Amino acid sequence: MTASPTQILTIEDFLKFPYLEGSPAWEYVDGAAIQKPMPKLRHSILQKRLLTEIDSHSESYTTLPELRCTFAGRSVVPDIAVISWNRIQVNGLGEPEDNFIEAPDWSIEILSPDQKANRVIDNLLHCIKHGCRLGWMLDPDDYSVLTFAPHEEPKVYRGDCQLQVLEGVYLELTAQQVFAWLKIDKR
């Protein structure tokens, strides 16, 4: 992640930045604009597969890639935001409002090689503190998934241990299955 100069910004000023929606995403944390690293191939494969798997195993939730979530003085862009359909605000035409101003129900981050784990954990903990019910941090180099949930100790999942998912997501998945998606058969 690249941090901006030490000038303190307000969240209102940050949200007016002309390059805010550029890629890679910018986040607002503790008065600073921080740019996430550009996703690489393993990150993108895991993100795509998780989006597909979670979406296909729940009618109550939708999975959204790189959705800006601005709440409680922070603006974060999880790699995947899982949100209950009934929490999405709609306008008079029945279409979703563009700005999501709450914590997602489930925030998923995929650690990139040049990303700082503590920054990612800090964002996940912020989400949990402000209403998120589940957080995942996937570490493709360690083949592990670190999970966070309110009033629970963080847990590290490896191998064939069943991963924690939200109630209403009917998905049985292990860390081993997730990271097996990175094996490419080139027959």
What does this structure look like?
The chain has four helices and eleven strands; from the N terminus they run βαββαβββββαβββα. It has 187 residues and is α+β, with helices and mostly antiparallel strands. It has a single domain, classed as tt1808, chain A.
Name a few traits of the molecule.
187 residues, alpha+beta, tt1808, chain A, six-stranded mixed sheet, three-stranded antiparallel sheet, 4 helices, 20% helix, 24% strand
Low-confidence stretches: none
Distance between the termini: 37 Å
Series of secondary-structure elements, N-terminal to C-terminal:
EHEEHEEEEEHEEEH
The largest sheet, given as strand count, sense and whether it forms a barrel, is: 6 strands, mixed
Chain-averaged pLDDT: 94
Q: Superfamily at the CATH H level?
A: tt1808, chain A
Tell me the structural class.
alpha+beta
Tally the structural domains.
1
CATH class: Alpha Beta
Based on the structure, what is the oligomeric state of the protein chains?
A: single chain
CATH structural architecture: Alpha-Beta Complex
Count of alpha and pi helical runs: 4
Number of strands: 11
Query: How much is the radius of gyration in Å?
Result: 16 Å
Strand order of the largest sheet: 4-7-8-9-10-11
Beta-strand share of residues = 15-25%
What would you call the shape? globular
Helicity, as a percent range: 10-25%
CATH topology group = tt1808, chain A
Keywords: Endonuclease, Hydrolase, Nuclease
GO molecular function: endonuclease activity
InterPro entries: Nuclease_put_TT1808, Restrct_endonuc-II-like, Uma2
Domain Putative restriction endonuclease: 12-169
